[in-house]
Amino acid sequence: MSRNALVTCVARGIGRAIALRLARDGLNVAVKDVKASSSDLNKVQQEIEKMGRKSVAITDDVSVDKAVETMIQSAAKELGSLDVGTSSSRFFHLFSS
Description:
Rossmann fold, alpha/beta, four-stranded parallel sheet
């Protein structure tokens, strides 16, 4: 049985490296980034598929709670399940009183 992962912010940098490493290690990988990075996101998805692994690209905004829930559900539905999740999100919230 194949293992499946969801990795966010994969268009470049650490997220890209994590997604490709997981695919090389035999996992199917759902990849996620923002719509503005969809071209690079699709390239990573294609690289994963060239390794013989299943991949799905998701564009969404991880700063929105409902979008995160939908992203996880979509990835699990497309891949069959999720065994690994990792986020290298560049987003953070600043709170002031």
